[in-house]
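Q: My labmate handed me this sequence with no annotations at all. I'd like to see what the chain might look like in three dimensions before we decide whether it's worth expressing. Could you predict it?
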Amino acid sequence: MNAWFPRVTAHSLAIVVSVLTYVLTTRAERERRPPAIAIAWVLGMVAFPYLVLPMYLMFGRRKLPRRTSGWSGRRSYAQHWAEDLIESFGLPPAAPSRVTFHRDGAESHAALVSILKGANRRLDICTYILGDDSLGREVTDLMIAGAQRGVRVRFLIDGVGALQLPRARFRELRDAGVETAIFSPLLARKTPGPRNLRNHRKWAVADGGRLWAGGRNLAAEYFMGDKDITPWLDLSFELAGPTAASAALQFEADWKAAGGESAEAIPVSEPSHPDGLSQFLPSGPDQMEDTVHALLIDACFQATQRMLAVTPYFVPDVSLETAMRLAARRGVKIDLCIPAKSNHILADFVRNRPLRALSNAGVSIHLLPCMNHAKAVVFDDGIALCGSCNLDSRSLLLNYESAVVFYDTRDIEWLADWIRALIPSARAFDNRPPSLWRDIGEGLLLTVAYQL
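A: Here is what I predict for the chain of 452 residues:
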């Protein structure tokens, strides 16, 4: 009895210290977490304080001190509610732009090559993955060719994605004059914040004013495939104008955070023949709010007619799930397209609980027969967004992501038609109740779904 009591007291003290650490750091840094995530941390500390407290100290931060975007924050009194909301985050206003969407991997590949070859002064590339395949080899050769003709070429890759690339590729790029940086490498601490905050942004920016962006990593499966590599469905676009300049400013901030040397801004004017308005929308720990997440929830409540969405992974937090469910119940027609089987088994397993709730509320869920990696959402006839953001908690609440918001009817309808064209080949989601063990498993995994 005498030996048992001190052990219980020490364990209770560890629990108290763990929970107090969580409360005090959350208050001190004014961290706002979704209730499910907060409960998961606290329950973990109560059950396994010696394991979960160190994990929290290493990975618990979700927001970082915001780096300047180069925008003064002056409001333009925009007429569209989404423009007004995005400007309230301190981000640049919507601007005239010239946009071309890519219907498939071949169109996207041609546009990417045009961007890489067309840079005259500077070429900035950000990706999560550079494939060790034919597409990755081609991009490498084009970066080297750019550096050899006198273009300043900067290549930024996420620390997890960099693990898949041979070290020799980095040496080859550096030897040819291409500047390289790894964002948040797993071992070195150049980038601020926990190691689980990954950079999932995907751009190529030529001369600060031409942008290639979307959901595609720079690997064969995201374009046309390769021998023994089946191509995936994906979306990307190219854009010219001030919105591209906003992406260039964000690249500059990310580049400096990864330890790279800064570059002077290149003046960018509006395109001579713009075909619509667009607005750059970065999301992540470097933003004051969960920007894309906030826009999606607001848009769900603003919508009156339709919502079309395509995403590879669907593990929303409670607030987004609720907003979609309530929109469907008041008559908004919602079509959600996701792959029947993605490349993430756990994400496929845990998505079923929110899918059942949405299906019961009237959301049409379409399971695509092939792997889809595209990310786009359309609301009514007034707004659409496309970029790197998946509709899951990791993308919306943890990762560094980006999207472009489109306001022109032509752009909105292009994305709506692209998503609608996926539906005939899809099968409907089966929302039958789960077994007891599956229900328990889904519930347990949902406590850590934001990390999937």
